[in-house]
Amino acid sequence: MNSSGALKVTAQSDREIVMTRVFDAPRNLVFDAYTKPDLLKRWLGVFGGYSMPVCEVDLRVGGTYRFVWRGPDGAEMGVRGVYREVVRPERLMHTEKFDEAWYPGEALITTVLVEQGAKTTLTVTMRYESREARDAVLKSPMESGVAQSYDKLAELLASGALERARR
Amino acid sequence: MQPSGYARSNRDRLDATFAALADPTRRAILARLAAGEASVTELAAPFDISQPAISKHLKVLERAGLISRGRDAQRRPRRLEPRPLAEATGWLETYRRYWEGNFGRLDAVLEELKAQKRHGRSRR
Fold this sequence. Notes:
CATH class of one domain in chain B: Mainly Alpha
Number of strands of chain A: 8
Largest interface: A-B, 49 and 47 residues
CATH superfamily of chain A: START domain
Radius of gyration of chain A: 19 Å
Shape of chain A: globular
CATH topology of one domain in chain B: Arc Repressor Mutant, subunit A
Low-confidence stretches of chain B: 1-8
Strand content of chain A: 35-45%
Strand order of the largest sheet of chain A: 1-2-8-7-6-5-4-3
Shape of chain B: rod-shaped
Oligomer: heterodimer
Strand order of the largest sheet of chain B: 1-2
Helix content of chain B: over 70%
Distance between the termini of chain A: 44 Å
Mean pLDDT of chain A: 81
Strand content of chain B: under 5%
Helix content of chain A: 25-40%
CATH superfamily of one domain in chain B: Winged helix-like DNA-binding domain superfamily/Winged helix DNA-binding domain
């Protein structure tokens, strides 16, 4: 079952991150999965022992949302924001601010769903207040990922570079 | 407001990392150091080039922050510094992996919603 496309992530302009991904489902379902708490709780950030005990969505312009994740050690991470645009089932714009933000200011997230032949292309544009904020977001998961990517690179380097350089 | 110096120095460092990685001999040296620290003589052994030439490569790697010198004053072993390497390779990749995980779970939720819809329709 691999009818969905690969995820593309790009750093765009000075302060944006753009993601695109194709889903094998009509967009009203993708929109539901993005906006209904009982569905959101099943996919957004819930891995490695993390669950989302708080997931509140007031889906209207000016309405707020509140998500709190809890880790296996009991540590919590929360985020909140305000919906700026709600056009079911094609467009969503909301702000995003983490309780303990590791980047300055708040982000503006625009989610666009385009349906074509029973498939939906999702495009998420995350706009930060500065290049520094954007880069901090990109680098934030690095701390935990350092060892992993390092291993991967070491493997890559060992695979052929040594042989070639010996010649 | 913080000046853009932080981001600039980061970009410069990333440039230095990529420049250092562009050479096959330097990549081979890094691959060797990934297995553990080594002296200059040990690092030069597999190559058909002079020790001064190796030292030159080591200097480039050191300036890029990719390697450092160990404590042993006699051997002066070089060792790998993983952070800049990880930054260069993992910048977008780790972020992408996080979302790939989210969207993989979302795929499963959507499959279930589609099945429910089909089921609901057939019952009507």
